[in-house]
Specification:
The N terminus is likely disordered. The two termini are 44 Å apart. This protein is an alpha+beta fold and 365 residues long. Helix 7 packs parallel to helix 9 and helix 8 packs antiparallel against helix 9. Strand 6 and strand 7 form a beta hairpin. The chain is built from eleven helices and seven strands. It folds into two domains: 294 residues, 2-Layer Sandwich (Beta Polymerase, domain 2); 60 residues, Methane Monooxygenase Hydroxylase, Chain G, domain 1, CATH 1.20.58. A seven-stranded mixed beta sheet has the order 2-1-3-7-6-5-4, with helices on both faces.
Length: 365
């Protein structure tokens, strides 16, 4: 194990080694440790067709009155503290099993329907420019009667800014619909952002392909291994979402109206296409590995061919020099002539030139 790590370190930098451990070493039976933030940031968007209000709350208890506000309410909790999450979940009737999933880390995307609520757990994806890696953030979304609650781990970023902008306009479609359309919009924005991440990953694959064609080396192999790990993260996050959206479509919950089902079918089409694209990228990575090996073998063949040609060209000189250098008296008159040395040198030059002509005529190089 130590030796394999030593050899692997020649191809991967320390970040990539840590990335390998993070991507591949997944044990669902071990409860991961999560660091709780100092406080939870709570944003409430309360709206109907006539008015819309956006508020930032300092205390968890301040979001309790919105349960029966008579409007559509979106509660977005950034930074998960166990105490705050449990308070909100208990007040809004969210089952303890869902609470455990919200506070967990590294869960597989899934959909549940418990106590008349629809719960979705997904992964938001981001592209890290500095490390050229796919970052994931777990998000939990709960749909209830006239409310949607989203639980995020990272308070610094998400993909919901387009939704926040639409909520400011009374004529926007989101303001004309019920909570199930808000629920759909959140899922749709997450799925659409998958394409943004895959585009950046695709650009990296294309650049790596050109690099391998021009000059393949051990760094190229390291880049291939790095991108393959990012494909694992991408595939692990995207594939289960297809089953998640399909579960919403097959659900008979009254929370999802019939007129909203067509929008979830559109999300289903998008996630199927994203899954197919991820499969194509994985095939491309396998092809890049084969291309790298082919280029390495081609370079090795070129080197061996040059060495073989040089060896063949030097063979006549070696033979002639060996004959003239034998350590006994030569009884052949040719050896004792004044022009014998120059004749030998001429043969050493003319024979290789004749061999080069023959090799070129046969197309050997």
């Amino acid at each position: 194990m130590t030796r394999s790590r030593k050899y692997l370190s020649y191809l991967l930098n320390p970040f990539e080694l840590l990335r390998t451990q993070k991507v591949l070493h997944v044990n669902p039976t071990v409860i991961p440790k999560r660091t709780e933030p100092e406080r939870t940031k709570i944003y409430v968007y309360d709206y109907n067709t006539a008015e819309s209000a956006e508020r930032s709350l300092l205390k968890v208890d301040d979001c309790f009155p919105y349960l029966h506000s008579g409007k559509i309410t979106w509660i977005n909790m950034d930074g998960l503290r166990k105490e705050d999450v449990e308070k909100v979940c208990n007040h809004y009737g969210i089952h303890p099993l869902i609470q455990e999933d919200i506070l967990s880390v590294g869960q597989r995307p899934k959909m549940d329907e418990i106590n008349g609520l629809i719960y979705c757990l997904m992964s938001m994806l981001y592209w890290n420019e500095e490390q050229s890696a796919v970052e994931t953030e777990q998000i939990s979304i709960v749909l209830g009667k006239d409310f949607v609650i989203s639980f995020q781990e990272d308070a610094s970023k998400d993909v919901f800014n387009p939704l926040r902008e639409k909520l400011k306009f009374a004529a926007s479609k989101i303001r004309q619909q019920n909570a199930d359309y808000l629920f759909y919009t959140l899922i749709d924005l997450i799925v659409d952002n998958y394409y943004t991440v895959m585009e950046r990953l695709g650009e990296g694959i294309e650049a790596l392909e050109e690099d391998i064609i021009r000059h393949a080396d051990t760094k190229s192999l390291g880049k291939i291994n790095m991108l393959r790990k990012e494909m694992i993260v991408l595939k692990r996050s995207i594939s289960p979402v297809r089953e998640l959206v399909n579960g919403i479509l097959r659900s008979e919950s009254e929370l999802v109206e019939e007129r909203t089902e067509k929008y979830f079918k559109d999300v289903y089409d998008h996630i199927v296409q994203a899954n197919d694209l991820a499969e194509n990228y994985r095939d491309m990575m396998m092809n890049l590995q084969d291309l790298y090996l082919s280029n390495v073998n081609l370079k090795m063949n070129e080197v061996m061919k040059v060495m073989a040609v040089v060896t063949c060209l030097l063979a006549p000189a070696t033979v002639i020099g060996g004959i003239f250098g034998m350590n006994f008296d030569k009884n052949v008159n040719f050896f004792h002539q004044p022009w014998g040395f120059y004749s030998a040198i001429a043969f050493m030059l003319l024979i290789p030139i004749w061999m080069v002509f023959i090799f070129r005529k046969r197309g050997w190089f």
